[in-house]
Amino acid sequence: MYTINWQLFCIFFGIMLLISFLMALQGRHFYTKDVVIRKFSIMDLEIPATPLELKNVLAGLYDLPPEQSRKSIGALKGQLYLDFLYMPFAYGCIYIACALISGKMEHDAGKAVFTALAFLQFLPWLFDIIENIYLLSKIKPDVKASSNPVHKAYLAMEAAKWGIALTGAICAIAALCYFWLSGSYASDSVRYFVFIVAEIIIFAALLKFFIKTPPPQKA
């Protein structure tokens, strides 16, 4: 834990944003046919309201016009596979931030909380891997709706994944804001803050100029 630093965080954060951009490029082609041709997002697959909703989105990939069906299926599979590369950098960023904040805490309770939040990130990473394997296994023309117990277990896993990751991220951001507002930070850490802001600006610019959703083909 004590060999990591904010420079490593900046590297992880930058790679995470780069992979996010590549995944956004693939997301432009996420179309399905559910009565009509419509866009969908990866969140529609991660948090489907019912087993039938997930089944309809995936089955609809194969009801699209042939060329669009090929692009949509390829883009979805590509994003899920690329997500395996994204995971260590996304959860790694939270781990690094929480670990560094733990080392800065004056009280043992604070150190324990952020140390726990750091190591807990291995759980959502594991859940994310299981999620992707599950979704990849269901991308096929004859996809069947999952049983209610399987669907409930899937949603519970998603809730745990997002809950643990967001708790770690939010707590880390809140602690960092406190340190900055109270002036309790090293002067050389300002450069890392500037670097992170620059990475976010570049990422936002890439999204603005390169992410344009192609129009759906008519059935």
Write a brief caption for the model:
By secondary structure, the protein is mainly alpha-helical. The protein is built from eight helices and two strands, in the order H-E-E-H-H-H-H-H-H-H. It has helices at 6-27, 42-46, 51-60, 66-104, 108-120, 122-137, 148-181, 190-210; strands at 31-34, 36-39.
Description:
With 219 residues, the protein is mainly alpha-helical. The protein contains eight helices and two strands; from the N terminus they run H-E-E-H-H-H-H-H-H-H. The chain has a two-stranded antiparallel sheet. It is globular, with a radius of gyration of 20 Å. Keywords: Membrane, Transmembrane, Transmembrane helix. The chain crosses the membrane at residues 6-25, 80-103, 109-130, 162-181, 193-211.
Topology:
Elements: H1 6-27, E1 31-34, E2 36-39, H2 42-46, H3 51-60, H4 66-104, H5 108-120, H6 122-137, H7 148-181, H8 190-210
Antiparallel strand pairs: 1-2
Helix pairs in contact: 1-4, 1-8, 4-5, 4-6, 4-7, 5-7, 6-7
Transmembrane segments: 6-25, 80-103, 109-130, 162-181, 193-211
Keywords: Membrane, Transmembrane, Transmembrane helix
